[in-house]
Amino acid sequence: MICKRESLGIRGKVEIFRQTNGGWEKAYEKNNLVVNGGLELIVDHLKDISKPVLTHIAVGTGATPVTPSDTILETELLRKPIDDIDTIVNVLTAETLFENYEAIGLWKETGMFTQSSGGIMFNRVNIDFNKTTADIVKIKFTVTTSAT
Fold first, then answer.
1. Is residue 141 part of a domain?
2. What are φ and ψ of residue 130, in 5° steps?
């Protein structure tokens, strides 16, 4: 008898868009890590649908490299409610708008969370994006699951 081993693959991506006169222009893109807390959250939902869901996106200035055991952003600047979250087949997308007066400075990290403070961090990614007072930006996270 041959046993086939199947596994679940989870890929994350963050995109940052700048608002321009013509609409939205992609300014940054990078893959991100679903941290241990995020993986545990996925598994917990298989057993208990009353577990917390993703509600906020945060940005920060911490530059420490991402590790699977991360539970917080190193230096959080601002955490905002997710404006739009949706799933289609095996893809989740979540977006939040940052106005020109919010979280000004050099963003070095971002992630999604289950609460407005504290909560479970789902993912974290080191980025390099300078947000100025001239920028209205949208952060879009995409999480894709697949059998590997």
1. yes
2. -95, 115
pLDDT in tens, 75-88: 999 999 999 999 99
Within a domain: 130: yes
Structural domain span for residue 136 = 10-147
Residue 108 lies in a domain: yes
Report yes or no: 53 and 112 within 8 Å, Cβ to Cβ: no
The alpha carbon of residue 1 and the mean position of all alpha carbons in its chain are separated, in whole angstroms, by: 42
Tokens of 43: 């598994």
Q: pLDDT class for 42, splitting at 50, 70, 90? A: confident
* Sequence-separated contacts (24+) of 103-106 with Cβ below 8 Å: 103/59, 103/77, 103/78, 103/131, 104/131, 104/132, 104/133, 105/61, 105/77, 105/130, 105/131, 106/61, 106/130, 106/131
Number of domains in the chain: 1
Q: Is 63 a domain residue? A: yes
Coil, helix or strand for 36?
helix
